[in-house]
């Protein structure tokens, strides 16, 4: 019967209007799809509606151009009311933690950007342990998140964890200073550190190359774990792979910041106007600003958040749970005359996961 019906169906199909034919074809396609191919669209719509957040910390000696760079990166002046301290005031000043939050929107996508500034860092005569208020701050944010997550209402948890720390290295030294090593070693297990060579316009290309090499060697020598760019997927196109290679080779990025727009070759560009010429912030031949901005905003923002959540926060969480468990065991031993077996870790699976991730990172 089917074989007789088929040619007739074909004729009927031809007599139908093109619109009805198209509708039928769509229906046939619909029959072949369950529909889960639309899942990414659903996630996309939901995330855009919810908006994104990102917390960036900037650290380094004052005067290295931190606020100028933040302004150049996000084209937002977060430091309008900043009061600059005199040398006298700076001697007695301790490291402060200042938080600025702005809501920025681009093509309907909202980003809640929080900049955590650390004025006073490295300014004292004796800088030993001057990173302590900063490590405490990062830990406090983890602690707050841990409490909120373990609380009753987990629906609207405010995530204040620091996703990335731009650490400014002076262009005038011969590599890392003890305070740079101390800072990075104190924070590298807690936050994604991206080291930067500040005010790169103070150095000629050869000097930048040497300083970069030196910093890379010292980072290795002191066992500092800065943020590692993830491996590029093998199915990415060649252009993307090339960009990824260049990005990795350029670290630590040598950056220039500017709050002013100047005219260069008939074009208005963000730059620094010197009597002998113009240094353009967004010119890749002048510095790595564009690479840093692309990495931070366009390509790696999500990965920075993932590493914060899956590695740094998980480490903190596992540590907390271990401490809580051992305290519980000790307390029970003191109260009970009967020997008690150590409590099983409540979240052994999480610990296993962290160990695996750590191993993958080390490789
Ligand atoms: P912060 O204290 O680290 O926030 O530093 P600021 O952003 O306030 O900058 C201190 C001074 O350095 C200001 O006079 C800036 O104009 C200048 N500055 C900022 N970025 C650069 C740069 O990339 N190159 C040079 N040469 N000067 C810069």
From TrEMBL:
Site (Important for dimerization): 172
Example of a GO MF term: GTP binding
Record's subcellular location: Cytoplasm, Cytoskeleton
Superkingdom assignment: Eukaryota
InterPro entries the UniProt entry points to: G_SEPTIN_dom, P-loop_NTPase, Septin
UniProt GO cellular component terms: cytoplasm; cytoskeleton
Domain Septin-type G, chain residue ranges per copy: 50-323
GO biological process, one term: cell division
Subunit structure of this chain's protein: Septins polymerize into heterooligomeric protein complexes that form filaments.
Annotated function: Filament-forming cytoskeletal GTPase.
Record family assignment: Belongs to the TRAFAC class TrmE-Era-EngA-EngB-Septin-like GTPase superfamily. Septin GTPase family.
Name recorded for this polypeptide: Septin
Organism: Rousettus aegyptiacus
């Amino acid at each position: 019967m089917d074989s007789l019906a088929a040619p007739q169906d074909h004729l009927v199909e031809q007599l139908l209007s093109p619109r009805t034919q198209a509708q039928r074809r769509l229906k046939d396609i619909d029959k072949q799809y369950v529909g889960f191919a639309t899942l990414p669209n659903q996630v996309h719509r939901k995330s855009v509606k919810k908006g994104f957040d990102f917390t960036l910390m900037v650290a380094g000696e004052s005067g290295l151009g931190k606020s100028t760079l933040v302004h150049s990166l996000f084209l937002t002046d977060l430091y309008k009311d900043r009061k600059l301290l005199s040398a006298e005031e700076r001697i007695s000043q301790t490291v402060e933690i200042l938080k600025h939050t702005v809501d920025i929107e681009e093509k309907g996508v909202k980003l809640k950007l929080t900049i955590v500034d650390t004025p006073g860092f490295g300014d004292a005569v004796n800088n030993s342990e001057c990173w302590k208020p900063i490590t405490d701050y990062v830990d406090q944010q983890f602690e707050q998140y841990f409490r909120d997550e373990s609380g009753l209402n987990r629906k609207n948890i405010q995530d204040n964890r620091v996703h990335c720390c731009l650490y400014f290295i002076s262009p005038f030294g011969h590599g890392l200073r003890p305070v740079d090593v101390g800072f990075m070693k104190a924070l590298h297990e807690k936050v994604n550190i991206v080291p930067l060579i500040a005010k790169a316009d103070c150095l000629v290309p050869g000097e930048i190359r040497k300083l970069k090499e030196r910093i890379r060697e010292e980072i290795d020598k002191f066992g500092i774990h800065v943020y590692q760019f993830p491996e590029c997927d093998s199915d990415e196109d060649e252009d993307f792979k090339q960009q990824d290679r260049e990005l990795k080779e350029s670290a630590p990025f040598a950056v220039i910041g500017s709050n002013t727009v100047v005219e260069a070759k008939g074009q208005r560009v963000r730059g620094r106007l010197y009597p002998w010429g113009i240094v353009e912030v967004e010119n890749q031949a002048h510095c790595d600003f564009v690479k840093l901005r692309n990495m931070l905003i366009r390509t790696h923002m999500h990965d920075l958040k993932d590493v914060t959540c899956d590695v740094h926060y998980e480490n903190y969480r596992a540590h907390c749970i271990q401490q809580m468990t051992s305290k519980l065991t000790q307390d029970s031993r003191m109260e009970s005359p009967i020997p008690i077996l150590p409590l099983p870790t409540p979240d052994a699976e999480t610990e296993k996961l962290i160990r695996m991730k750590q191993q993958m990172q080390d490789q």
